[in-house]
Amino acid sequence: NLVFVAKESVAEETRVAASVETVKKMRSLGFDVVIEAGAGGLSRIPDAEYEAAGARIGSIKDAKAADVVLKVRRPTSKEISGYKNGAIVIAIMDPYGNEAALAEMARRGLTSFAMELMPRITRAQSMDVLSSQANLAGYQAVIEAAAVYDRALPMMMTAAGTVPAAKVFVMGAGVAGLQAIATARRLGAQVSATDVRPAAKEQVASLGAKFIAVEDEEFKAAETAGGYAKEMSKEYQAKQAALVADHIAKQDIVITTALIPGRPAPRLVGRDMLKAMRPGAVAVDLAVERGGNIEGAEYGKVAEVEGVRVVGYPNMSGRIAASASALYAKNLVTFLETMVDKDTKSLGLNRADELIKATMLTDDGEVVHPNFVDPDQ
Ligand code: NAD
């Protein structure tokens, strides 16, 4: 069986879907591995290192023979036109709102999987790309904020006087937010955080940050069975905004990470709140790709909004591409391993497996995932 690891065609994608370690792993699982020349360049993995690990360096033409195509992003129309009918394609597929692209993958006969739909259960933890990438994004968000901020983060007592610790407020305390809290704490900032899920309260406190939230009845019921946030009512959002407005006026750095699965990101910080922040304040919007938590955040830019510099970089984990690729590639190969028979080393899908069912978008010419099946058909 042949695995093809594609070079990403979107200019801003710095990551790659295989590492030296995962090439070795795929070889041991019985795969021949072809890496598209230069695929690892931006993640600092030279072709020669892949070769030394047992891969062959090839070109996009090699995709035609591949039984499995590994990518970071969903392949474009042009890319899939070069894949063979029946190929397994695994990537971060960004399926919501992209139904036409899913239909096209189905028409091309691809069996495609969206890594971000992996269930968050113990068995699948090592395949959880949302967590592996969000963790790095949370770290990097603090690094980007610190780079833009014109003051020091830790308190510094020097012979020339004292520099106060920066006040950092993290909004959304999921995987990214918790890592942002930990990173800001390591840099010596004074950290507070908010979330709408009650479970976040203890996690925030255990990292040594102060928890700020409207803890009413709705808050106590705000977590779904899957551990995700619900979209909050208008009334809750108004109460939350009032509390946050007060708190944010005293902050130097705000990092927002709030997402709701399958919905646009909630708007948490308005212009009025930015205006009330201290001179020199910095904000980082990690939700910018999903519409943004911060009013005025601009995709791919550091925008000046009401005197606050708002960082709106997409693909934050891709800004530490070498680390992000290492973890992403490991997530992928662990999933791929579930499709290989250990004894015969043959590739076969168990369509009854809950991981396969949860992530499979298209199969045998059809869109098969229940969230994306067209109800009119
Ligand atoms: P996410 O990326 O969907 O959202 C980020 C955070 O934003 C969440 O904590 C969410 O509650 C919060 N949020 C949403 N609306 C908000 C609002 N209006 N105001 C403030 N905050 C808001 O979530 P995630 O980081 O992927 O994680 C969600 C949960 O799943 C976490 O509890 C996480 O620890 C848990 N998780 C479990 C596993 C596992 O069991 N294997 C793996 C990963 C994550």
UniProtKB/TrEMBL annotation:
GO terms for cellular component: plasma membrane. InterPro entries: Ala_DH/PNT_CS2 (IPR008143), AlaDH/PNT_N (IPR007886), AlaDH/PNT_NAD(H)-bd (IPR007698), NAD(P)-bd_dom_sf (IPR036291). Signal peptide: none annotated. One of its GO terms (molecular function) is proton-translocating NAD(P)+ transhydrogenase activity. GO terms for biological process: NADPH regeneration. Pfam families: AlaDh_PNT_C, AlaDh_PNT_N. SUPFAM superfamilies: Formate/glycerate dehydrogenase catalytic domain-like (SSF52283), NAD(P)-binding Rossmann-fold domains (SSF51735). The keyword NAD applies. It comes from the Bacteria. It catalyses: NAD(+) + NADPH + H(+)(in) = NADH + NADP(+) + H(+)(out). Residues 4-137 form the Alanine dehydrogenase/pyridine nucleotide transhydrogenase N-terminal domain. Keywords: NAD, NADP, Nucleotide-binding, Translocase. It is an enzyme of class 7 (translocase). Residues 146-312 form the Alanine dehydrogenase/pyridine nucleotide transhydrogenase NAD(H)-binding domain. Its EC number is 7.1.1.1. The transhydrogenation between NADH and NADP is coupled to respiration and ATP hydrolysis and functions as a proton pump across the membrane. Belongs to the AlaDH/PNT family. This is proton-translocating NAD(P)(+) transhydrogenase. It comes from Rhizobium hainanense. The lineage of its organism: Bacteria, Pseudomonadati, Pseudomonadota, Alphaproteobacteria, Hyphomicrobiales.
